[in-house]
Amino acid sequence: MSKTVTVYIDGQLYQAEEGQSLLQIALANQIDIPHLCHHPDLPADHNCRLCLVKHDGQVESSCEIQAREGLHIETRDSEIRELRTENLKLILASHREKCPKCQEKLPCPVAGLMKKYGVTSEEYRRKMLDLSVHKMANAAEFDPNLCVRCGLCVSACANIGINFLKLEGKSSDAHLTHSQNPKVDCIYCGQCTVSCPVGAIREQSHLTEVEAALADPEKIVIVQMAPSVRASIGEEFGLEAGINLEKKMFTALRRLGFDKIFDVNMGADITTMIEAEELSERLRQKFAGEKSVLPMFTSCCPGWVKFLEFYYPEMIPHLTTARSPHIHSGGAYKTWWAKKAGIDPSRIVVVSLMPCTSKKYEADMEKLSFEYQGYKLKPVDLVLTTRETAALLKKHQIDLLNLPESEADLEGEYSGAAAIYGASGGVMESALRTTAHLLTGQELPKVDLQEVRGMKGIKKATIKIGEQEIKVAVVATPRNARNILEKIKRGLEEYDYIEFMACPGGCIGGGGQPLQGTIETIKKRIAGLYTIDANKKVRRAHENQVVKDFLAFAKAEPSLAEKILYTNYSVKNKFE
Amino acid sequence: MHLKDDLLQAIEQANLVGRGGAAFPVARKWRRIKDLAKPKKYVVCNASEGEPDVSKDFFLLENYPAEVFKGMLLAMDFLETKEGYFYINKKYYQALQVKIDSLIEFCQKRGYLIHLFLEEPSYIGGETGALLNSIEGKKVQPRYKDPSPSVLGIFGVPVLLHNVETLYDVACVSSDKFEQTRLATISGEGIAKPDVYRVKSEQNVSEILRQTANYPNFDFFVQVGGGAAGEVLSSVQAETAILSGSGSIRVFPKTISPYSFLKNLFAFYTRESCGKCSPCRDGSWQLLQLLTGLDEKSELPWAKFSPIIKIMDKGSFCNLGKSIALPVRSYAANILGIKV
Question: A47 is in which domain, residue-wise?
Fold first, then answer.
């Protein structure tokens, strides 16, 4: 246990742990100290020099001062303000002209700082390097000439175990770039975008396309929200993390002009069904002593799939062939629902609201397109991250928090098992609830599988289904995935089923979520998701009537079922 | 040769200080690392010498390389370690390869493993944290002050880091040849014999110039101490100022325009900033931009320099960025009579 000490900030007394930085202490006590390069979950680099304070009359950066008994700092001194202002002018030189958000008058992460310190970003002209915006497939992108070289994205990328991003060059030529190593590639998870304080590394925006679709009277625009978005979008409007705004969101989406309000959660129930069928079959083969590829791996995270296809292509056969939730439901809308509603499927535009950047990459995959009624259709046309969704609402002056609640349209019906898809362990838990039913005809004695919940990067459990014991693991981040995959390859550990997610905590900690999220905020969001599940009457995917109807429709036409329920994988090269 | 404890005492009595520029007492550094209960320790020789106007380390490696290595072995014996690093500027190594290679081989035969580390020449590469990072294969950027390199230097191993001249001094102390001297690098246009000279440890600048027959026959000012980061002094101030830092004395004719003087200075900082922190990286570049379009005869925008100099001084992460204030302010005050 570290020692508790008393420190004084602007004459006020605070208790802190010895050795904690004064910046951390100030932030924990809602004392405003500007900072760009600090993130509570990432190593400190002390490079932005904005958190300057006075300590014994000397100017120091508060992230470098370690708490000890009786230490005093001043944060509001006029010299400090002058120095912070000058530094901000230097750091943000030419920011506004390069920042797409500032250009579109959308909320930009540093707008508040600029306003508070009276900095316009036009005080100095930045040295523009001859570097273009780099696109990470069609998921994310970074602009080295907007980057302030705080290095948080580089740390975030290293932290999850990828190390694709790096800062290179010295002096004013220092710039963000990516690894040239042919064996290192981005997996499009977007963790980097969550940490960027200036919008230099960000999702590839689909806002313009979504607005165009909404304005087009010929289009039937369907929106579907991922499990995680409802538990995090409130943060963009100043709420605590983890507050479920699902019903207000349904109202908000109607006001934006979407024609149909469906739900990715319905798709999650489809995925659970398809994945549980496949797992049951692979397990049945194993129990019968037949050849079977186990462990089976989940595939609903495109970041994880890209990771496996690039780094461990020899293990591709372990991936379930089930498509991911929003792709499943998107396919359902353009076939089953279109037929039911009597709508020409080519008029339908499906927009997914996701906590994720890799879903943009996935939605654009050629292999997911399918032929139906003479048209070539994409299951999902456009993807907005949680942040883009909030920006869209703000742009249209929709006061989310004060809206009345409403329900999704009928085909958006979902089970509690779907709601928890957003949390690491949720896919596994949902699939096991249904696999047990498929294998034994009985339900699991306990619907909640506490063993696979929580923020731990690797969770292991043995679940009894009937007379058989199923060994499972739940893994988040590539760093942890490597660890488990290497053990499997060497025969050190054996499993039947493993859930993998690229982001810490699963989709709820995704790369499309509100900026500057921390492990603490992710935990709160997760709690929100499990509350939704616990309060649902229907908690198992196989009890969802909408999904039953759709699957009856799809399976009546095996050639269609093949096209909209299953997928395949291939070895990926760098930048693919 | 002195025995271990004996040598420490002799070093203390000689008041030996680090000659990398910071003048930290050598004995104190030795004792601190000796007292650490760590199974492994390294001695590292810093032969980066990235400051313009300083070439004393090259002078020593060219003329007294055996003494420098002897100093290194003495430090290794004192710490009871057999392993160290010789961190050297690539250009220096190219010029001195034969001497250095044979000395490393000589040490190896006597059971000391000295790793040769070739540095891409740069100013920041000689900074303690940047140097250690460089050996670890990390970015050549300064480190956070805590933990100190004496505790966690390279790959978690404590490091005793000394400049070339300091190790040379240690060797001199051990053979009772240390005479309270240091090296001065004298440079500048129009002076008679620019070179490296042995001078008294506490000698004033004008006296050094006279003794070495370098006292200019024209109106001049000097920059003293740490190359471009050194303090600017008028010829009158040079009469009483003691040579400090890494021992550079650069003579400038008083006729040099403020534009030329500052352009060189700002260009140095712009070039050598490691790029880590914004005040140094962005500030130095903006300072240079403020001179764009101006010439020898221009009135300089001092009011615009001032806030940048101030944030570099007070806000930079390491001493490189902070150090710009001294030459700019002392030049303005001592030569031009302007307060910045």
Answer: 4-90
pTM above 0.80, yes or no: yes
Q: How many whole angstroms from its chain centre is CA A48?
A: 26
Q: Are residues A231 and A339 in the same domain?
A: yes
Domain presence at residue A292: no
Question: Which residues of B fall within a CB distance of 8 Å from A80?
Answer: none
* Sheet containing A71-74: order of strands: A12-17, A4-9, A71-74, A52-55, A58-61
Q: Domains in chain A: how many in total?
A: 3
Distance between CA atoms of residues A75 and A170, nearest Å: 31
pLDDT of residue B4: 66
Find the CB nearest B282 among A64, A83, A91. A91
pLDDT-derived band of residue B1, with 50, 70 and 90 as boundaries?
low
pLDDT number for residue A106 = 87
* One domain for residues A10 and A74: yes
Q: Which domains does chain B have, with CATH numbers?
A: 4-174 (3.40.50.11540), 181-253 (3.10.20.600), 258-336 (1.20.1440.230)
Between the CA of residue A448 and those of A431, B20, B128, what are the distances in Å? 12, 65, 55
Percentage of residues in chain A with pLDDT exceeding 90? 94
Q: Which of A47, A52, A172 sits opposite B270 (nearest CB)?
A: A172
Question: For the domain that residue A403 is a member of, what is the CATH number?
Answer: 3.40.50.1780
Q: Do A90 and B282 touch (CB under 8 A)?
A: yes
Residue A244 lies in a domain: yes
Residue whose pair of structure tokens reads 């006729």 in the numeric block = B255
Domain identity same for A334 and A253? yes
Residues A248 and A372 in one domain: yes
CB pairs under 8 A between A and B: 94
Q: Is the pLDDT of residue A1 over 80?
A: no
A158 touches chain B (CB under 8 A): no
In tens, the pLDDT along A348-380 reads: 999 999 999 999 999 999 999 999 999 999 999
B281 CB neighbours in chain A (<8 A) are 149, 171-172, 174
The tokens for A288 are 């019968």
Neighbours of A570 (CB within 10 A): 10
Residue A67 domain-assigned (yes or no): yes
Does the CB of B319 have a partner CB in chain A at under 8 Å? no
What confidence score (pLDDT) does residue B332 get? 98
Q: Are residue A238 and residue A334 in the same domain, yes or no?
A: yes
pLDDT of residue B301 exceeding 60: yes
Cα separation, A23 vs A32, in Å, equals 9
A393: closest CA of chain B, how far (Å): 35
Give the pLDDT band (50/70/90) at residue B146. confident
